[in-house]
Amino acid sequence: MESAPNFAPRKTQSPTVQLQEIDPAAGIWCLDSPLTVLGMPLGHRMTVIRLSSGDLWVHSPVEWSPPLGEALSLLGDVRHVVAPSCQHDLYLEGWSARYRTALFWAAPGLRSQRENVPFSGDLVDQLNPEWAGQIDQCLIDGMPALNEFVFFHPASRSLLVADLAFNLPSSGDFFSRTLLKMNGCTHGFSPSRAFRWMIKDRAAFAASLQHVMVWDFDRIIVSHGDIVERNGKYSMALAFGEFIGLAS
Ligand SMILES: [Fe+2]
Description:
Blueprint: E1 20-23, E2 28-33, E3 36-37, E4 40-41, E5 44-50, E6 55-59, H1 66-73, E7 77-83, H2 92-98, E8 103-106, E9 121-122, E10 136-139, E11 149-153, E12 158-160, H3 174-182, H4 193-197, H5 202-214, E13 219-221, H6 232-244
Parallel strand pairs: 6-7, 7-8, 8-9, 12-13
Antiparallel strand pairs: 1-2, 2-5, 3-4, 5-6, 10-11, 11-12
Helix pairs in contact: 5-6
Bound molecules: fe (ii) ion (FE2).
């Protein structure tokens, strides 16, 4: 039997990098970093979950730095690093150089694109024994160019998504706002136009969303934009209503 998790920080966090405590009792933190893609200020959010073993599970990492490494070391040992889609693969080399015994997990199709990253294996559309019972996962099917996995952390009732939907604030200069509007990124929690273009099998995509909607989440931690703190299922229904009604 595993011992009860201890979510208390080992000691005071690093003064130079502060991870945001999403739910201290559940052991989940985030760290935001600037990121501009094709002129659009999307930002980039990393999520860290402490497993019952005390090890850390890192989703969509931001660029590693010594201060970040120090902050993480106060929370636990980095054991898993997850690249949740074929387009969320930044900074992995820096992490693999620093955490040589950690396991790196790739969205299907990513390993052939990033042969310099020592991946341990592909994410699979079933419970991963390394984190089963603590984090659930689902492939968003019907999008072979992306193969995004979304994750559910029951302890914090959080859904973790990469590009499934953005939730960008309406700020920035005229140029960036125009670019975001052209990509359909100015409607609150919703999929971008580029994301919609990548859906090749609408029925398979819809079936995946049906699976996700079974999970008992309330919060949605997006990788780009503001976290949806409450009523996440309602936000999902608004954003994907046309698909959620498709699957049989
Ligand atoms: Fe992304």
